[in-house]
Amino acid sequence: MGRTDRRDAIALDKACEFYRQLVADGSTSDVHKLANSLKTVNMALEAAEKGELELTIQLWQKIRQALFDNLLTGFPSHIVAITADGRVLSEKEALPDDCLLELYPEGLRRADDSFTARYRDLHPHTRGLLDRVWRERGPSLRREDFALAGAAAAAAGCEGGVCAMRPNSFVLGADVLTAEAQNGRQKAYREYWRLYWQSYCSSHAREKQYLVRQMASLEAVWGNLNY
How far is CA 142 from CA 94, 129, 189, in A? Predict the structure, then answer.
């Protein structure tokens, strides 16, 4: 599992609760909680893809998509678009499907307070809004720009007369997500203390360092397990 600065970290089960509340409210004003939830989901998916954590990856990817959508459209930020061959797109160039987006929200100052996503992986509704905002405004994004783009799209009858369902309209697989988050915390707690006692009993410095890193990786996803 990846490591990062985890001050004010949000455990995966709490990130799941935050997502559910985000769906219920439609938006959030807490950019720090949103960013920390996204970091945790990113790390959990990285661990799951490596086989270190049992998750329904497709469902958690949808959560990641929704959290990224909210960070992109709901808060002022700067975005960098990079093509598949490594070229940084200039303002108002068309965004190709395979370009990588680097998002830098304003007001976040830590080294890991940036987020990446493939343009093609964004929700269709968000992708359409971003394309309009990017062409009209360039890389400096504001909530108001997305609101205006959404109003323009609605006035135009949406693309081809079909409006994509907005992100965060409902919680996908709510029961599965909740169960995986709760069961995962219990497993992580047991694994943490197994590693703790193994480290405590070890007389080898390198082994102790390895075990401590494994414990830190667990806490990167599940928060404080030393209780």
Answer: 19, 12, 41
Which amino acid type is present at position 49? E
- Residue 165 structure tokens: 């369902």
Structure-block tokens of residue 55: 């998750």
Asked if 20 contacts 28 with a C-beta cutoff of 8 angstroms, the reply is: no
Helix residue ranges per DSSP H, the chain? 12-25, 31-49, 57-74, 124-137, 143-155, 174-201, 205-222
Distances (CA, A) of 163 to 104, 121, 169: 28, 18, 13
**Backbone dihedral region of 140: left (phi > 0), alpha (psi from -120 to 50 degrees) or beta?**
beta
Q: How many CA atoms lie within 13 A of 6 on its CB side?
A: 18
- pTM score of the predicted model: 0.83
DSSP 161: G
pLDDT in tens, the chain (227 residues): 444 454 567 899 999 999 989 888 888 999 999 999 999 999 999 999 988 888 999 999 999 999 999 999 999 999 999 999 999 998 778 899 999 999 999 988 776 789 999 999 998 888 988 988 998 888 999 999 888 877 665 545 555 544 555 556 556 677 888 899 888 999 999 999 999 999 999 999 999 999 999 999 899 899 889 87
